[in-house]
Amino acid sequence: MKSKKTLSMILSAVVLAGGIGLAPAKAMADTKDGVKVASTVNTKNVGEVVFKAINDLSEKNIKEARLAIANLQDSHTKHLYNKTLDYHIYSNIDKKVSPVDELMNAYDKTAKMRSAESKVNFDIKLNGQNLSKEEQQSLAPVMAMINSLKVNATSKYKSNEKNTKIFANSDINIDFMQQVFNLKAWMDINTEGKQPNMKYIVSIPEAMKNLTPELKGKDYIVYDTSKIYEKLNVPNMDYGKMMGVYEKYGKRFQEALLDFIRVADAKYSIVTRKGQGTILNGKEKVNLYQIKLDNDKLVKVVKLAMQDENMKKLIKDYLKDTINVAAEMQDKKISQQDLEKIQQEIDKQLEIGMTQLVAALEEMNKSVKFEIVLNCGVNKDGYIASEAGSFKVTVDSAKLQGKNNGSKYTCTINYNSELYNINGDVKVEAMPKVNEKNSIDYVDMLMNNVPSQNKKVSA
């Protein structure tokens, strides 16, 4: 541990010294004489801001340092500054110096858990304001259906050390239009070997068996990718190679995303600390953090993402490797010339896609408003043990239709969950034995419906 601290201090000294020496030297070597002074002053100021944050870790100083680092052009210098700042923050994470880092640290730790039990509830509410009589009449039956929906579930989850094998089962209760549907679900995921396999089994409630003749006499619906490979004649390719690409880029994407979230939070205050709360009927205390996004913040965040050259390069590299591996899996080879053409098209489409997204969001702002609020509870062991939030969308129907009657529709999804027995001895219920007599394959259901749909069209 002592050697790590020593190394960190040396790294800090090198980076901070680079702020007034090494980094400007590189900047001068790569630029024209006219920007020498500007480059030196800019990097020196960044070093001073980072040094201030390290010596006085506070939310304000950390945000200022991150904004300063984000403005650097040299990716190597930017990386060193970020790593140095992050080390000091995470070495003092228990001192509550940065809400966004505390929450991201909890998310990272929770993603690595190997077992847990959970409770989840959600419902949907729809209502209208300033509606005409015709609108009220049209909305009434829709509101009756949507507002009646309530879902709650309890689940058990377990995985191996590498997180390549995951097992889970759930008991789900759906309350809809004064009917209660009780069902069970099982999940078995195995990403080891040449072909990853995912198997889901869902029990069929008695009330649902009458909805379609196919479900009569059946107890389960089965979704099994190994069966899909057989039925759709999917070539027996080595998907392990593709998983290798995911593993290669997974950590890099995670780090790039965390860096982006931290900068976005520094600019727009997305994460705030909200004191303490309790979960599990008051049995456990949690530290609360709130994530809040609305139209304006989302547009700003997307525009910021468009300027993130590191993330863009990472996406391009990932797609390039994915294309190569996909070709290898089919015993094909892509020439360098074709690969460059594909890369150029990817670059073009990424830019077009992001530009169109921003334009669509800005256009949407005129008639659609949304607000996402998520309160996360971190327990004493550093895991996210609760989430409670809402996603509210308000549609200004009058503006969409070019009217002045002020009619609006608001849809709100409320959600909350609690996690417990984390990394405990969780007993996941074994999957039931299924066969052609007691179950129906999900893909068969879809394929059986295709001819009937065609008949309807031709008729």
TrEMBL record:
<keyword id="KW-0175">Coiled coil</keyword>
<feature type="coiled-coil region">
    <location>
        <begin position="325"/>
        <end position="352"/>
    </location>
</feature>
<feature type="signal peptide">
    <location>
        <begin position="1"/>
        <end position="29"/>
    </location>
</feature>
<protein>
    <recommendedName>
        <fullName>SbsC C-terminal domain-containing protein</fullName>
    </recommendedName>
</protein>
<keyword id="KW-0732">Signal</keyword>
